[in-house]
Amino acid sequence: MITAIVFVNADVARIPEVAEQIASLPGVTEVYSVTGQIDLIAVIRVRDHEGVASVVADKLSKVSGVLNTETHIAFRAYSSHDLEAAFSLGS
Questions:
Q1: What's the pLDDT tens digit per position in 14-55?
Q2: 2 near 48, Cβ under 8 Å?
Q3: How far is CA 22 from the centre of its chain?
Q4: The whole model's pTM is what?
Q5: Total domains present in the chain
Q6: Distance CA 89, CA 91 (A)
Q7: How far apart are the C-alpha atoms of 61 and 57, rounded to whole Å?
Q8: Helix and strand element counts for the chain (H, E)
Q9: b/e map of 3-36 (b: 16 or more CB within 10 Å)?
Q10: What does the pLDDT look like over 50-72, one tens digit per residue?
Q11: In contact, 26 and 44? CB cutoff 8 Å
Q12: Cα distance between residue 51 and residue 59, in whole Å
């Protein structure tokens, strides 16, 4: 399973509609509206890198109102349990 995090800049007047359209795409598991330099963050979970390309290049980037995207591929996941263990003092 490949997880990709996609930063999305969108037409500010259409952010809710753009987010809903992105959320409805196959492979997109979550969409967040956020503050800062970007407008939306989409989380994509697919079988392989070709799936990432299909979702981002063929579908997400073509949603009306999407101005540009920046895709990050996750290579390791840390659960909150793992982080607690990493920062514990050996107790």
A1: 999 999 999 999 999 999 999 999 999 999 999 999 999 999
A2: yes
A3: 10
A4: 0.85
A5: 1
A6: 6
A7: 6
A8: 3, 4
A9: bbebbbbbeeeeeeebbebbeebebbeebeeeee
A10: 999 999 999 999 999 999 999 99
A11: no
A12: 11
- Report residue 48 as tokens: 């392989």
Find the domain containing 13 and state its range.
2-87
C-alpha separations of 79 from 34, 82, 85, 86 in Å: 22, 5, 10, 11
Supply 57's token pair. Answer: 């290049």
For 20, the token pair is 């809903």
The residue written with tokens 């990709």 in the block is 4
Residues 6+ apart with CB under 8 A from 60: 6, 8, 22, 25, 28, 42, 44, 66, 69
For the four alpha carbons of 67, 73, 78 and 79, in that order, the dihedral sign comes to positive
CB of 17 within 8 A of CB of 75? no
CATH number at residue 39: 3.30.70.920
Any idea what the Cα angle at residue 30 is, between residues 24 and 34, rounded to 5°?
A: 115
